[in-house]
Amino acid sequence: MVLPRRSLNKKADQKRIVLSLSGLHQITIGIVVFLAVAWFSIARSLLSGHFTTGGGSSGGGGGDGGRENEVEHVEPFVAKLNAVATQTRTTAAAATTTADAETLPNRYGVSPVKLRLPTPVIVVGYPKSGTTSVWHFFNCSGVISQHFCCCGDLNDHPPCKHKKTMARCIIRNLRKQQERLRQQQQQRDKSSSLSPPFSMLSNCGSYDVYAQIDGERLTLKLKDNDSGGVWGVPLENGTMEVVEDPWLVEIGYHMRHFLPQHFNLHQLHQDVPNATFILPLRDPREWALSVFHWFQARGRIINEYLAQSVGREPRLERPGKNHSIDFLARIYQEHSQFIRDFVQGHPSHALVEFHIQQANAGEVLASAFGLPSTCWEQKNPMGSRAKNVTDVAFENPYESSKRTMHHGRD
């Protein structure tokens, strides 16, 4: 019988496919055998000398003794494998660290520049006194620097990452300090261990330069009503001041600017006794005019001073809008002298003082810290970023006691 040519070709094709699959199968088996032999050789070299038993056989008469020897000698084998894996991970981590150091020389937390004066460097001047210019000078020089924001954020203005500001981070730490003191007082056994006390700057970011540690306080609306609501102001002593007088709410008394460089300077000294202070200055009246026209800064700063004077003598009086410029200029001069007197009484701090409008401002900073003066540039914070300065939201970790303060309208 003669098959059609097409059928013959089909049977030949099927035969070739079968032969091809058979050859591929043989190759696969060969590869598996090769890998098995290779792994056996590696394991044998690692186990060299470890399975030589002494004092008994693992066979018929060995019983449990042989099993003990097996466990005893398998452990070094596992340890060797772990050592190889650990060495591999260590080498890879070292390579990654080296690569990061080469590609990110100015990464957060690793300043490649060593300053001539001790760190941290903290600007203790008031806002609107060239703090942005100081931040730019150090940041341009490659120094890890902070301004307004906190907690690893390298931005110099809002919006901040995670909506966290340095001022509110410090307030949170001061509240934790008070809570820790209360715990210590309540403990009868003074020897019992407590976690380390919180520094003002704890968990606020490891910066070499803190260019602005002040900022808006957090305000919480506790109750809504027809008179503007009831507002709470978390205080650094662990309590909550409640502002409920309709007149005080109307004038925004609960809106304040936290100034730790003035009202908490002694605590700052205890936490960082060797910090270097920078006091940038400008004409007091020009500063007052600048604050007067900077959003609600005038009212916030005045409210902070009024609140801090409660229970103290002499108690400050609200200046009124027509006398605000004189009031602000006076407190600016008093703060500058307060910083000078404080450093004189605490010589562990170095103080770098300069006028931001003088031609040699950059040279003063450069000479003091051993940096090039080319990075100095007087910055004007007004402009495109002004719209970002708002009462930013912040997480509310405060669930402490509240106190109500009654203020007159004087």
Summarize the entry for a quick read:
With 410 residues, this protein is of the alpha/beta class. The protein has helices at 5-46, 64-103, 131-140, 166-186, 246-250, 260-263, 265-271, 284-292, 297-308, 324-345, 361-369; strands at 121-123, 145-146, 209-210, 215-216, 220-223, 230-234, 240-243, 257-258, 276-281, 350-355, 402-404.
**Average pLDDT number:** 75
Major sheet details: 5 strands, parallel
- Percent range for helical residues? 40-55%
Cα Rg: 35 Å
Strand order of the largest sheet: 2-3-1-9-10
Class by SSE composition: alpha/beta
How many individual helices?
11
Q: Which regions are unreliable across 5 or more consecutive residues at pLDDT < 50?
A: 1-21, 45-110, 381-410
Which percent band covers the strand fraction? Answer: 5-15%
Q: Tell me how many strands there are.
A: 11
Report the order of strands and helices: HHEHEHEEEEEHEHHEHHHEHE
Span between N and C termini?
A: 125 Å
Categorize the overall geometry.
globular
